[in-house]
Design brief:
eight-stranded antiparallel beta sheet; 2 domains; five-stranded antiparallel beta sheet; D-amino Acid Aminotransferase, Chain A, domain 1; 34% helix; alpha+beta; Phosphorylase Kinase, domain 1
C-alpha cells in the first residue's frame, strides 16, 4: 500500500513490516503490510495475507492480556489495521525465552554460556526447556541489526531506569506465562517471543504486536518430548523456517550476501504457514479479506472520528 494522508496526520514512518501514521501527535494508525523481513532485511517478495494474520493475532492477544498491563490498542477498523495510543518507546525489545532455540541455541552451540548477562546451564540440548524462562533483551535499532544487551547495560545507558526495568521484567514474564497458557489450549508451546513497551506520562504500556509468528516461535506440543528424546527437530510454527531457508541458501543479512530467489511456490508455502499458525493459535478458521485502499482509508477515518468524540 502506498503512503496515505489521513486527517490530522502529523508524521509517517515506514518500518520493516508496518507503515505507521501519527495522528495529531496522539494516536498511531499501524498498517501491517505483507512485507516479510529476516536478519533485519526486507525480503524482495510480499507474502499474501501476512499483514492480516499479524494484525488479527496481535489484536486477539492484546485483548487477551489487557488485565496484565495497559496496552496501546484502541481500535481494529480493517483486517490489517490497528489504531492505538502513541507512546514514547523504550529503545529495547524484551525478548523472553522458555526453550534453548534459535539465536540462543546458536550462541550456546558456539560454546558461550552467557547471553545478555544471563548464565545458561551446562548440558542442554537444542530446544530443551530452561529451568525457568529467561529475559535476553536487545536494543531496538532504527536501522541495521538489533544487538544483545544486558539488564545492567540497559540501566547504565539510561535506556530504562532501575524502577522501570522492574516493571518491564514483571510484565514480560506475566505476558509470557499467559501466552503459554493460550498456546497450550491449542496444543502449542510458546517457545520464545518479544515485547515492546513505551510510556505515556509515568505509565508503562505494552505496544506493537504480541505473540505473532513474526515476534514469536511456537512448537507443536504433541510429540515434543518424544522428538526431544530422539534428538529430532521439533515441529514448529514461526518465521524460523524462513530464516533456515535463507541460511541454507547462504544468506544471513551480512554485507555482500544476496537474498536468494523466492519462487511463487515458496511464497505460497510461507503464506500457508502464516495462515496455519493463525488457525492454530486463534482456534478459528482464517477468513482472508482484501480491502481496496479506498475502503481501508474510509474505515480508518470513521474509526478516528469515533475516537475523537
Amino acid at each position: 500500500m502506498a503512503p496515505i494522508q489521513f486527517s490530522g496526520q502529523t508524521a509517517f514512518y515506514k518500518g520493516k513490516v508496518r507503515d505507521v501514521y501519527t495522528i495529531k501527535d496522539r494516536l498511531l494508525v499501524m498498517i501491517a503490510s505483507d512485507r516479510i523481513s529476516a536478519f533485519d532485511v526486507i525480503l524482495p517478495e510480499p507474502i499474501p495475507y501476512k499483514g492480516q494474520v499479524l494484525n488479527q493475532i496481535a489484536a486477539f492477544m492484546l485483548q487477551s492480556t489487557s488485565d496484565i498491563c495497559p496496552n496501546w490498542l484502541l481500535s481494529v477498523p480493517a483486517p490489517n489495521v490497528s489504531i492505538g495510543q502513541k507512546c514514547t518507546p523504550f529503545k529495547i525489545e524484551m525478548v523472553v525465552r522458555g526453550n534453548l532455540t534459535g539465536h540462543a541455541w546458536r550462541t550456546y552451540n558456539s560454546g558461550k554460556r552467557v547471553l545478555c548477562g544471563v548464565p545458561l546451564p551446562e548440558g542442554m540440548k537444542e530446544n530443551d526447556y530452561f529451568p525457568a524462562p529467561i529475559i535476553t533483551p536487545s536494543t531496538k535499532a532504527s536501522e541495521g541489526h538489533d544487538e544483545d544487551i544486558s539488564r545492567e547495560d540497559i540501566i547504565a545507558k539510561g535506556l530504562a531506569s532501575a524502577a522501570d526495568w522492574t516493571v518491564l521484567e514483571d510484565y514480560t514474564l506475566k505476558l509470557f506465562a499467559r501466552g503459554k497458557e493460550i498456546a497450550a489450549k491449542q496444543g502449542l508451546i510458546l517457545v520464545d517471543t518479544k515485547y515492546e513497551f513505551g510510556k505515556i506520562g509515568d505509565t508503562i504500556y505494552l505496544m506493537d504486536e504480541i505473540h505473532t509468528p513474526d515476534s514469536s516461535r511456537y512448537f507443536y506440543a504433541d510429540g515434543f518430548d518424544a522428538r526431544q528424546s530422539a534428538g529430532e527437530k521439533q515441529k514448529q510454527l514461526s518465521k524460523e523456517f524462513v530464516r533456515e531457508w535463507l541460511i541454507a541458501n547462504n544468506f544471513m543479512g551480512k554485507e555482500g550476501q544476496t537474498v536468494p530467489h523466492m519462487s511463487a511456490e515458496w511464497i505460497t508455502t510461507i503464506s500457508n504457514r502464516y495462515i496455519e499458525l493463525y488457525e492454530h493459535v486463534i482456534g478459528k478458521k482464517f477468513i482472508p479479506e482484501r480491502l481496496s485502499n479506498e475502503e481501508t482509508v474510509r474505515r480508518v477515518e470513521v474509526a478516528l472520528a469515533e475516537l475523537e468524540k
